[in-house]
Amino acid sequence: MDVDKRMSAAGAYDHPWIQKQWEKEEKNLTIPAEVPGNIMEFMNSVNFKKTTLTFLASRIPEDQIENLRKAFIKIDKNGDGVLSKQELTEGVSEVPGCNIKEEDWDLVIQLMDTNNNGNIDYTEFIAG
């Protein structure tokens, strides 16, 4: 109850119990093979289309995008709910056949980051 004694979100995520559960549920999860291609398609979209896709992504029922939710969780290594450039590039690059070049990742982040906060949040990931 005392906020000063409460564990931080990062501390909770690093707790052995949470990590054990993560190992059990998420460690062997594979990121869908279509993720890199979808990101490349998203990069080529016009701003209106990106905005529309982001809006629609926020309205899709969770049960219809469960695999993407799990992929987001797997890529989000520190569990903070957003993907840094490093997390996104490392996670998506693990997908066999990923054809996103190293020099394109800055553009990927720029185009997917529709709220310009420097990270990719869940809705932006789903839209991408």
Largest sheet, in brief, is: 2 strands, antiparallel
Mean pLDDT over the full residue set: 84
CATH superfamily: EF-hand
Helix/strand order? HHHHHEHHEH
Q: What is the total number of structural domains?
A: 1
Question: What characteristics describe this protein?
Answer:
128 residues, mainly alpha, Recoverin, domain 1, two-stranded antiparallel ribbon, 3% strand
Descriptive report:
The chain is mainly α. Helix content is 55%, strand content 3%. It has a two-stranded antiparallel sheet with strand order 1-2. Helix 3 packs across helix 7. The radius of gyration is 16 Å and the shape is globular. The termini are far apart.
How would you summarize the topology of this molecule?
Elements: H1 9-14, H2 16-25, H3 34-43, H4 47-57, H5 66-75, E1 82-83, H6 85-93, H7 105-112, E2 120-121, H8 122-127
Antiparallel strand pairs: 1-2
Helix pairs in contact: 3-7
Summarize, please.
This protein is mostly helical and 128 residues long. It is built from 8 helices and 2 strands, in the order αααααβααβα. It has a single domain, classed as Recoverin, domain 1, CATH 1.10.238.10.
